[in-house]
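> call design_seq(struct)
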């Protein structure tokens, strides 16, 4: 069961390294996906961030493409 503190720590933005860990992919591969437009990313100051919503969208697109064949 999650504690109240853990429930309050929902993150909306992730670093490229964190996104790579979440998706079980390499950091360079995440950058290639960003360059190809397959994962959207944001620049916050000089920092690259990936929104949780965009990670979820990427996974949904992967699933859909594999179902379609």
């Amino acid at each position: 069961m999650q504690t109240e503190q853990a429930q309050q720590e929902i993150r909306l933005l992730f670093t490229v390294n964190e996104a790579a860990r979440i998706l079980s992919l390499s950091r360079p591969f995440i950058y290639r996906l960003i360059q190809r437009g397959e994962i959207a990313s944001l620049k916050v100051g000089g920092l690259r961030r990936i929104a949780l919503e965009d990670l979820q969208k990427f996974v949904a697109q992967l699933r859909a493409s594999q179902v379609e064949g």
